[in-house]
Fold these 4 entries.
Entry 1:
Amino acid sequence: MHIELNKDVLYIIDTLKRHGHRADAVGGCVRDFLMGKPPFDIDITTSASPDEMKRIFADERTVETGIKHGTLTVVLHGTPYEVTTYRVDGEYADHRHPDEVIFTETLSEDLARRDFTVNAMCYSPDHGLTDLYGGREDLERGIIRAVGEAAKRFTEDALRILRGLRFSSTLGFEIEEKTAAAMRGCAHLLSFVSAERVLVEWRKLLGGKDARRILTQFSEVLAVAIPALSEIPVEDLPPLDDLNAEERMLLLFALLPKEVAAVRFEECALALRSDKASIRRGTEILSHLHDADLGTDESLSYLLHDLGEGGARAALSIRVRLRLCAPSRLVALEKWIEKRPCTALSDLAVDGKALAALGYRGRAIGDALQELLFAVMSGKVENRPDALLSYLGAVK
Ligand code: ATP
Ligand code: MG
């Protein structure tokens, strides 16, 4: 069993070893390496205490924000590596954060605190793969299984429920029976998970290849974190392939009655503290969903004007999935975008300065530009400076 670790990770492991400690790459990165995928980040677990790590890496660029929990971030060639002392988590009073962390010298205790068997393996060149919970077998068979007693682990930290659903969705793994039952039994504890953490897991879950399966099988569990799901008829969800996470979220809300779809989406996105731009875009897309036909290039221009390229694609993809318009309209949109139609003020062949030179002032400049834009979009005038200016002269 050999994993090709990069030079910086090997340097960290080696440096700790030279100081008499053991260090291994651990968790998600080992899972991803074994699946032949590049890991999202690389974490290292070590027998060195936080103070020892600080001394050992005193000459490197480090970040100490996690040091109370035993984590020193070592930055090598611009990449941060989280190096964490073996630890066990103390009591969990709030179903999310341990009241205290206890450092230990035993690797097996550190692996036991990890959430799922596929995330509880570690690897170093000296010791090879350490797999105390059958993680490799579960990885090969495609199973998400809690380490230890599932209900106890989800009661300690309810975020693990969402993480488990997320991994099942992104990796396409089945959730082992007892683990799944505990997720349902502990679902009410999801109300203890912060909006920020819910949003991160929810987006990853939605983007996963098996998102539809998780959404339909675990909608009541997810509804504790995303209350709108209890109203959405998820069983009506069409296939999600080729849609990104944002489009999938909007498609879910598009299953609601059209009068409430945009409002419910906005409430949900605000509660999850989504960024303002995606809330605005999503609300606009959902309010436009049942608009009149998009059969003409002119109507596509208006869609691009209102929603931008990404938004227009999302709106049409969702309409196609809901059979509100023909798939050929998506092809038409792409062809139309290639022609670089004029759909924004910045696409116009004249700008405010040109109008100021003609004597326009203040708000009249903006109004005239807007009028020109709509005239171009509806085919009344060509987007050339001379044509635009003479059009303005004629309508004035
Ligand atoms: P990703 O691919 O998103 O990075 P990951 O499994 O690596 O997934 P991280 O947040 O990077 O997730 O955490 C690294 C490791 O720390 C996990 O693989 C797991 O072993 C452990 N871990 C993370 N969060 C928890 C948790 N809430 N409870 C128990 N163990 C956890
Ligand atoms: Mg990770």
Entry 2:
Amino acid sequence: MIAGVLVEISNKNVDRVFEYSVPETLKKDIQVGIRVLVPFGKQTLEGFVLEIKEEKTTGKELRDILNVVDSDVVLTEELLLLGKKIQEKTLASLISCYQVMLPKALKAKNGSKVSIRYESFYRFQPVPNVSFTKKQQEIVNYVEKRTIVSKKELNDFSTSSIKSLIAKGVLLEEKKERYRVQYTESSLSKKELTEEQQKVVSEVVQQTQQNYLLYGVTGSGKTEVYMEIIDFYLKQGKSSIVLVPEISLTPQMIERFQKRFGDKIAAIHSGLSDGEKYDEWRRIARGEVSIVIGARSAIFAPLKNIGIIIIDEEHSESYKQSDPNPRYDAREVAIMRSEYHHCSVLMGSATPSLEAMARAQKGVFHLLMLPHRVNGRSLPPVDIIDMNQEMKHSHGHFSKPLMDAIQERLRRKEQIILLLNRRGYASFVTCKNCGYTFKCPNCDITLTYHKSSNTLRCHYCGYGEKGYRECPECKEESLTNLGVGTQKIEEELQRIFQDVRVLRMDYDTTSRKGKHEEIISDFRDGKYDILLGTQMVAKGLDFANVTLVGVINADTSLNIPDFRSSEKTFSLLDQVAGRSGRSEKEGRVILQTFNPDHYAIALTKNHDYMSFYQKEMEIRRRLKYPPYYYLCDIRIKGKDAMMVFQEALKIKKSLERNLVNMILLGPSNAGVFKINNIYSYHIILKYKKEDSLYPLLKKILDHYQTNVKIKIDIDFNPSQML
Ligand code: ADP
Ligand code: ZN
């Protein structure tokens, strides 16, 4: 018996299957999809068995497989096929396409640290003619009644008596796997669906294989619809995947699913340790779970017999993996898996991506709509405040209307969400005297001042240094903070509104385990008046007492040099606006901006997604951007800027020579030219259809494979153009 093994090594030269012979002792264990240990040169490596056959294809002597790593298959037949498709689409190495599907604990480099956790139990075993002391008899009585008890349960009994009972053979020690995450039983919290919701559910469950786009305004009850559809398939013995952006995978969301489906769910999120993720993965692989809810990588959950794949907040850029390889799009992978399982994909959003809506308009996706909120209220009215006018008579970051509205909510004991999409204190520090600005020594970007720690930090590489009193250049004490971050706004709120209770939610306050959960439950319990944060506060949250949403500066995302900046701005503003007035009380939204006439801002006034869509499509058509054209971003990277540029030119020439139906841009400096001392240039390709593109790019990748000074990254349909 011969096994074809793909070894876990990140060198592309060995990204192919090697043959090994299977020793007699391992024949019963070796299956396609199992992990094995193999000799490779002088090393011992892990690898995946991709094929089993009788005859070898070379005349060479084959080496033996050393052992199996796990007792079960880790890659199902479906996932093995899927990996190959993803490789074709992304041009990444095959091994990286398989590694991305598995939890960290199953990757060769990290595998040793995380292990299966066991719990000890004692089983009662009747033994004739033994006598017990009084203490021993108590234990025997306890265990005999229950047959089997965990070691923990016997904590209060004497350890020496337990030991003697073990010696007498009355207690048998047993070990059982114990999962690190425990779910409670469901406590059925099903809502009576509205007619609109019911109609969507019926349409979806009627068809067996169809791609749907559900365009439903914020608070229209999409999540409730998802759960009803999942329930339908659950009753047919089928499983479901629900993808949500990491940022909206909040404890609130998980709790809703857990309440309805109990321990049939596995929730995979960044708050879990590697061990917890590993356990969740094994529950899924063993078929103990029917519903998987998680961020991007949950699309690879090893579920069998899938009935529906749901992608919430379909427009989220988090569904595209931008780094490292494979640069896959979970929305595309969802469709690939649905083809295998003959099931439907349902993508939902209040602000669908242009790509998805364009497909829906063409009939490629079937369009479903939930145009109304479930509570029967209209969407909250949005006031757009022109800060150019406001700045004439005020200095802080709060306009008069926003201040008044906050004051009123505080008086009425209602809650407020404030969005400022920039963490830290100030966006950069500069000297008023000589104009010096603080930049990261490794990256081509200004440092951000963090007041609480008195440090200047780089948001790209994490570099940090202590804050300064005087300018390092001219030695004057004229340093000033320009721009504004969440920390500064928090301080200003405290100054303006006495005794206001402000809770800050951003990357800095949520990085510790459990903090995210704590913030959400504290705010829900009314311990705070204002929840202030970055885009984390915009998505997925549902607080009944929030009646005001304020946006400090609606322009932050508009100024990013990216062709999607308008789309991202409209979507962020509409999402955060949707956090207001979700229950009985009427909600209101106030947006502060320096660009009140920009369509991405003006059109949020009436939550007018369709007008935004049409306007933005027109611009994309004129500028030849997606969804009219495909994009491919080729990045050429290295430490020597000049050499990188020369190679980029060579690549461009070769593309020009070989491709006809293609618009070529660049090479140009990447948005951040230097990160961690690595320079990068882009070449951007725009095309509708180009058959020779993939083979040509493969050749280019192969060519640079052995070049240690130049690295090439290829990103098809990049989610951001930085
Ligand atoms: P979306 O996901 O579209 O923003 P949700 O599903 O979160 O909307 O629903 C918004 C709020 O309305 C939630 O508090 C939810 O529990 C409630 N809700 C949804 N559907 C119904 C219904 N049919 N009856 C009563 N309340 C509902
Ligand atoms: Zn840096």
Entry 3:
Amino acid sequence: MAEDVVTMEKIVALCKRRGFIFQSSEIYGGLASTYDYGHYGVLLKQNVKNEWWRAVLQERDDMVALDAAILMHPKVWEASGHLAGFSDPLVQCLGKCKQRFREDQLREAQPEGELKCPVCGGDLTPPRQFNLMFETNMGPVQEEGSTVYLRPETAQGIFVNFKNVLQFSRKKPPFGIAQVGKSFRNEITPQNFIFRTREFEQMEIEFFVPPSEAPVWYDRWRQWRLDWYIDLGIRPDHLQLREHGTDELSHYSSGTSDIEYLFPMGWSELEGIANRGDYDLSQHAKYSGDKLEYVDTATGDRYVPHVIEPSAGAARGTLAFMVDSYDEEEVEGRERVLLRLHPRLAPVKVAVLPLVNKDGQPETARKIYEELRRLMPAEFDTGGSIGKRYRRQDEIGTPWGVTVDHQTMEDQTVTLRDRDSLTQERIAISKLGTELLGRLNAPWRTPKLGGGEAQAA
Ligand code: GAP
């Protein structure tokens, strides 16, 4: 494990201390591997999703958006292969602990010989396939035919809407459909905080291309998605692209790569990019009886587009951005914990703080705050010493702090503090808004962790 990777315990503690993420149903003892997002967690995850939308939709002209329902016709999951094949091999301990495990994960840790329970060393049952889809019933009567599934991926909602989108979007391949939404998997071994949970959010793209162009688009999307994480501040040496071996590939895939991040538990998948060929559209055409193809009206050519699928997890992204930006340093003999988040990801962009709670300073600070919050998420804080208030802002990753002091009352200037370099400069109140908007939209300079000083990206 790299020395500069923070432990998961520290991230979990910070999330709880500052209200990012809580255990779900905590007052009832919690529900395993489900989490609730508090104020700053909501804002951070929303910013991750917003930056994704910005990169894949707003800054491109070959993408459209979709928001499909979570519940879909059960035939969708027959056609996609999820009913028959979306399963993990499950083994159970026959010894003392009776715990269940994924056989494939145990095999990675115990490559040789007969598998044993990793907790108590007991024997294990033979593996049986366990379908990961959550079932529920539609309508008031629980009868055959009323079973529906909570979608295990958002992707199928895109495939079954291919024809609708083609008709109304005036797009032709190459073009993509992007969607963000909840997915559900009855994971056997959810673990590592919000890394693997049973309810999670995906940010998925299905990019439809002429068949001969698929390899080129596959390479482009791998690079674009990798660059997205780096542009938002993740250290390049904490990211790697891992191409799946032929034995790992799904039967429909001619190429899949994982973008892996160096999480506290080691290199793990952050996002997958797959070349899915024409498998999904062909399957849905077969099961629905509808033609799912592109017809070029100019040439009369018709074909089933191939699909490149970059599929990311919103929570995994959020976790990676927190882990990568977490820092501890000593400033004037005191420890400072901070998130050196990219300003566009930071839940709050600026905190406005009166130095003391008298002499008109709180009133002036409140006025500045009310002006700034029209431009960007801002906070006004009067509680506790100025040092305590800054420590709180550092821990939630607020990039800039504005302090109103006695000089402000004389010359209408404030101090502007930078989270990463800790520099403080004096600036006229009238220039604050323009200055901060400029900084928010400026190219980001990756801060050097543990040092405080910024360095060029
Ligand atoms: N449509 C393709 C698909 O769903 P996947 O590799 O199973 O592919 C894509 O999932 C991404 O969704 C993963 O890279 C991960 O970021 C996220 N993800 C998958 N399962 C998850 C889980 N149980 N908890 C949190 N995120 C998950």
Entry 4:
Amino acid sequence: MQHIDLKEIRSGDKYVSKKVTVCGWVRTSRDSKNVAFAELNDGSELLHTQVVFDKAVFDDDKALSSYLALGAALSVEGIVERGLKGDCNEIRAEKVELLGGCDTSYPLQKKRHSMEYLRTIPHLRVRSNTFNAVFRVRSELSHAIHEFFHKNGYYYVHSPIITGSDCEGAGEVFKVTTVGYDPTVKSEEEYNKKDFFGRSAGLTVSGQLEGEVMATALGKIYTFGPTFRAENSNTPRHAAEFWQVEPEVAFADIDDIIGIATDMIKSIIDSLLKNCGPELKFFDERFEPGLIAKLQHVVDSEFARVDYTDAIEILKKSGKTFVYPVEWGLDLQTEHERYLTDEYFKKPVFVVNYPRKIKSFYMKQNADGKTVAATDLLVPGVGEIIGCSEREADYDKLLKEIKERGMKLSDYANYLDLRKFGSVPHSGFGLGLERMLMYVTGMSNIRDVIEFPRTKDDLK
Ligand code: 4AD
Ligand code: MG
């Protein structure tokens, strides 16, 4: 179909006084005595373009009302004119084709719907301004991430979705199986043998282990793809399917990787500030007043850094009553993370050197024997957005850790090999794409930054 993106037409001089054909969906409309107006959106930008219908031309009331119906899809031929307000152009319609009519049962009527209601219509909610803006930013954010790594000499590698190991060791792996219930099967081992791969398999929780393999040859790599966790928690920050960006860097220690994570966060936010002006303005006005200033501040200021041990002291002295206990050796809960970043530091903060026992098996053990060279980046409003560590590069220490945790050695044989053949210090992190999106849009529920969220007991 011959048509021009509305974005090209709404601003600038290029098409003024010219005849154009455009397509789009009616977002709002207005009918008055001699003229009618429809705000058209074709997805090329967040803002709508006004189409003016002169009733002397469109004198068939029934046809006109079908063009003005909310949600209707139109193809409009007309002349581009300077609008009365500001520099927005509008289109004076001459001919209209109704591509797809839309009746009054259309669920997105002209009012502010609740987020809960919009979640019940995942196939339509992207046509609302809010979700239109969210998915525009999601796209730009993904692009900015690729751009950051590409310009800094990283290779984009693809780690497998189906894996045989549990990288985080948290027992949250979704099983991949083709074998149904069979009462004759006596044991789990027998069951797994009969299965597709002749062994147990699952959906990856992280591309890290394969990323480490690639980094030991390509030096600097990143993966960027879907990861899956059968997390039984029904929170606004957890999804069963989410995207992770996972760089892995050879010859880098914990301080180097913290520097890389900081540069990446600043760089991608800077890109969004440059490329998502209308969307961020929309979120600033509707969802998080001060959002743009917050993001600019992140780009311009230093991130905080605090030792886990000191963070525990800060929490203990906070005078706050937390639901979960605060004790050295216990993991930080969301309420603790939020206090540290929202109230105490009031900016992004790296919490460094967590107790070994509460973190994953692969993290580099510090000389104190109690902590690991690991850090989480916490941000106001969301909490943890990055999990990061230097990896244990010593064969014996890693082997001992795997055994102590009762992990199946054969699943990690290749991973251990990396520590036998030219082992080097290396580090990496995982940024949750949706958590980052929540931070940059002010959306407070992860279900609202994924078009088709998969969470406990919910798959539409
Ligand atoms: O801290 P995590 O578990 O770290 C890893 O998976 C490492 N293997 C990453 C690495 O070093 N390559 O997860 C990393 C990030 C978290 O900080 C969070 O942003 C996000 O992934 N995340 C989730 N996001 C949405 N829903 C969930 N259930 C998430 N679990 C983790
Ligand atoms: Mg984590």
